[in-house]
Design brief:
Blueprint (H helix, E strand, L loop, with lengths): L1 H7 L1 H19 L3 H31 L2 H6 L1 H27 L6 H28 L6 H7 L12 H25 L1
Helix pairs in contact: 1-3, 2-3, 2-6, 3-5, 5-6
Length: 183
């Protein structure tokens, strides 16, 4: 049954990587490819969320919750999976609610920032999952250089929390500014 989880996790990761690429193309490039990326983004995001839910549910069905909570590595993996799901859920709602306008003005930069953060989160999720499966990666060394020892640390380094707060405030201010212009 563990093979089911290992197989399922590749769907949201592939769709999230594709969605991130589509957002970057749609936001930064002109022309037909950008138009196609913007038009096809919502179905890719919806498929990514369905895949993520299946992967997360399968993970909880396979391994006992007590085992997951006893390991800092497993807790970090679960935490990053939920952060990834949250970021891409937010992107999905933004694109669904605003459609093509999601790529207008400052909204485009909100999408780009969220996609890049989401990309880092799902890369971290996959790396931690690889460690749980016994397949380490070089990305773990990068995490270590940033102050995160994946086998023992269960926290967000202070600088990460500060960056998240600053980004949250900046994106909130951009949203309010855009709302005032529209209203």
């Amino acid at each position: 049954m563990t093979g089911m989880h290992h197989m399922l996790v590749h769907f949201p990761e592939a769709f999230w990587a594709l969605a991130t690429l589509m957002i970057l193309i749609g936001a930064l490039l002109p022309g037909r490819l950008a138009e196609l990326s913007r038009a096809a983004l919502l179905p890719v995001l919806v498929l990514s969320l369905l895949g993520a839910l299946a992967a997360i549910v399968s993970g909880f069905l396979i391994w006992p919750l007590e085992a997951n909570l006893a390991s800092p590595l497993a807790r970090n993996h679960i935490l990053m999976a939920f952060w990834s799901l949250g970021i891409y859920s937010t992107i999905t709602v933004l694109v669904w609610r605003t459609g093509e306008a999601a790529f207008d003005g400052t909204r485009r930069w909100v999408l780009v920032v969220l996609a890049l953060i989401g990309g880092l989160f799902f890369a971290t999720t996959g790396t931690l999952g690889g460690h749980l499966a016994g397949a380490t990666t070089a990305f773990s060394e990068v995490l270590g250089l940033l102050g995160w020892e994946v086998y023992t640390t269960f926290y967000s380094p202070l600088w990460v929390i500060a960056v998240m707060v600053i980004l949250g405030l900046a994106l909130g201010a951009l949203g309010l500014k855009g709302r005032r212009k529209a209203g």
